[in-house]
Amino acid sequence: MTELRKKISIIVPFYNEEDGAQVFYETLNRVMDGIEGIDFEVICVDDGSQDGTLAALIGMTERDARYKVIELSRNFGKEAAMTAGLEACDGDAVIPIDADLQDPPEVIQGLIQEWKKGNEVVLARRIDRSSDSFLKRKTAELFYRVHNRFSSVQIPENVGDFRLMDRVVVEALKRLPEQQRFMKGLFAWVGFKTVTLDYARHPRAAGSSKFSGWKLWNFALEGITSFSSTPLKFWSYAGGAGALISLLYAAYIVIRTMVQGVDLPGYASLLVAVIFFGSVQLISVGMLGEYIGRIYMETKRRPLYIVRKHHGK
Ligand code: UDP
Ligand code: MG
User: Which of 33, 105, 111, 283 is the most buried (most CB within 10 A)?
Assistant: First the structure.
């Protein structure tokens, strides 16, 4: 039996990466040219960049037929950009990778080797995050801990979007209808035979991170609320516990009044109880709001992204 040539799709989201685009192109090409017996396509998704990124990408499609560009009509965010790439690619396996060379293309060779052994998902795990700030590392650690405690879908720690996925996995991902796509969670949710490969994470090649602390916080909220309803249940228990304590306290006051007679002072305890339960209610209503807001967004069924133009063929 003759072995058919396999094709790999590499998906790269670009948002204002003009400074790094050229090095990325050269580095990735060096890696692809060094891998024998495999065809590549590189799907660059321009996520509404306001700088010269798009022009640089179009330049790549002219110099190298493996490159294609999907130009989105505005900035839709990395998750949507990756989804656009996943839906457009047709390789036997897919590798999403960041444009800033923080996911080193040299690792691709190893990913492919593991895939050829029959694994459907090959995770690239960063063993050294010293290129990220102390705060970012610590908050990431906390996020994984909280998420994995709350949710039945376990997200592996120190694994980003950089990975190889077989076509069967990509087809499974495409069937997930949700609008708010927390990719790391969706990747984990679909399952499949998975192995892990370690690598050291580099600092950004050029430009600066597109994720501020506030954006990451919202991203973390998205992750937890997409995969767990534990935060909602928490309030039933908190409410139950509060009601029990109040009942005991009420019983204590009634008995005390019966024994000692009417007693006016009690302003402090009253106020404390009012303020405490008032704020607990506000927090729980806010938590409900987080979920209702997401239900609201989900029901609109808007497309995840809008393509202005496809470049390259
Ligand atoms: N990115 C994107 N859209 C956005 C933000 C980021 O396509 O709205 C891309 C960005 O160009 C890069 C990747 O997502 O290729 C990862 O972004 P970044 O390096 O800023 O994230 P970090 O490594 O700091 O988590
Ligand atoms: Mg980065």
Answer: 111
